[in-house]
Automatic annotation (TrEMBL):
<dbReference type="Pfam" id="PF13304">
    <property type="entry name" value="AAA_21"/>
</dbReference>
<keyword id="KW-0742">SOS response</keyword>
<dbReference type="InterPro" id="IPR027417">
    <property type="entry name" value="P-loop_NTPase"/>
</dbReference>
<dbReference type="InterPro" id="IPR014555">
    <property type="entry name" value="RecF-like"/>
</dbReference>
<dbReference type="InterPro" id="IPR003959">
    <property type="entry name" value="ATPase_AAA_core"/>
</dbReference>
<feature type="domain" description="ATPase AAA-type core">
    <location>
        <begin position="23"/>
        <end position="335"/>
    </location>
</feature>
<protein>
    <submittedName>
        <fullName>AAA family ATPase</fullName>
    </submittedName>
</protein>
<keyword id="KW-0227">DNA damage</keyword>
């Protein structure tokens, strides 16, 4: 389980170190940095697939992604550095992005960020004795199974992460385990529910233990839960949100269609007829009751389009999923945050409540935090 998330110089996050629990609820007013925190987690996941540099480029490159405030420190020239990291019970990871330096061959990609430093370590805090792999520029060394260090023969390209290039089961088994752990992280962000949303159309159905990010395979995902997952939790979640209602999945020549039977209605409603809120709740049901839970599940504003009456059932769904996976919920709905807090106490689920605020300089901070002594212990690797 992850215990700490650290971000420095990313958008409004000048320096933010956040504690994580089995269930972490991130809340705050609009513009306080919730979306930046969500994006920081996605960038870390992209690093495991070798896509962090490309993801930063899609944001407009380092000039657009960097902290936009004053970067001057204690009289020294400011160093362009965007740093992301996390730590947990078993592993920690940190990566430092910066601008290219030096006279290399001419390239149209000269504005791409480079990975300046990258480290993994054992346990929740970076210490020299806990290092498992250490990358400085193009040079990488990894700790082998017998405790000795192996230095990479070939230089690592500045835009490639060692997670994708050097995760060798013989030379770097811990690096491979960490990479696969990060690749299992799952993100859901504003799944479409408009009139032309993929979830509203009948689709060819195959076993779907993981709901796709566009929700197109909703019917197949719900049927998979019925056959191989917690079908009782599925029925209970639908009834809690829409009393007396049941979900039916029909097979029309291999194409699966979702039907919702509601009390008092003479016929069931198809996915194309459902309201945005009803469809979104069913999408969250399929995502949260997955028969293949990830190591980390991150939900960005799951309350969007939902009637306030659906927030308690949504909270129950999230708490049910938290039994099998670590969850981060980014929300601006205080009703949802309160329902999760109440439910977590009764279910005895470890919970961290993080409320983000902006200070006078525009920096995102955690509300109620007096100073560095109130935040989790964290050390960045130095360049």
């Amino acid at each position: 389980m992850l215990t700490t998330l650290a971000v420095e110089n990313y958008r409004s996050l000048r320096r933010l170190i956040v504690p994580l629990e089995r269930l972490t609820v991130v809340s705050g007013a609009n513009g306080t940095g919730k979306s930046s925190l969500y994006r920081a987690l996605r960038l870390l996941a992209d690093a495991a697939d070798g896509g962090a540099v490309a993801a930063l480029a899609r944001e407009g490159g380092l000039p657009s992604a960097l902290w936009a405030g004053d970067r001057r420190g204690s009289g020294r020239s400011p160093v362009v550095s965007l740093r992301l990291g996390f730590a947990g019970d078993e592993f920690g990871y940190a990566v430092d992005f910066g601008h290219p330096i030096g006279a290399g061959a001419p390239s149209m990609f000269g504005r791409d960020p480079e990975i300046k430093r990258e480290c993994t370590w054992a346990g929740p805090v970076l210490r020299p004795s806990a290092l498992l792999s250490d990358r400085s520029g193009p040079s990488v060394r990894t700790r082998t199974a017998d405790g000795s260090w192996h230095r990479s023969v070939s230089a690592l390209r500045p835009y490639d992460s060692m997670l994708g290039e050097l995760a060798d089961p013989r030379l770097a088994p811990d690096l491979l385990r960490l990479r696969e752990h990060m690749r299992s992280w799952r993100f859901y962000d504003h799944v479409r529910t408009d009139a032309h949303a993929p979830a509203r159309a009948a689709r060819v159905g195959t076993r779907t233990p993981v709901l796709g990010h566009d929700g197109a395979d909703l019917a197949a995902a719900l049927q998979t839960i019925r056959e191989t997952g917690d079908h009782e939790a599925l029925a209970a979640a639908v009834d809690a949100a829409f009393p007396g209602s049941t979900v039916e999945i029909t097979d029309q020549g291999g194409r699966f269609e979702l039907l919702l039977h509601q009390r008092g209605m003479l016929r069931p409603l198809g996915a194309a007829e459902l309201s945005d809120g009803t469809l979104r709740y069913l999408l969250w049901t399929a995502a949260l009751l997955t028969p293949r839970p990830p190591a980390l599940l991150v939900l960005n504003e799951p309350e969007s389009s939902l009637h306030p009456d659906l927030l308690p059932p949504l909270a129950d769904l999230i708490l049910t999923a938290a039994r099998d996976t670590q969850i981060v919920v980014v929300t601006h709905a205080q009703e949802l945050a309160a329902a999760l807090a109440r439910g977590a106490r009764s279910h005895r689920i470890g919970t961290a409540s993080v409320t983000l605020v902006k200070d006078a300089s525009g920096r995102t901070e955690v509300a109620g935090r007096e100073g560095p002594l109130d935040e989790p212990l964290w050390h960045w690797p130095k360049r």
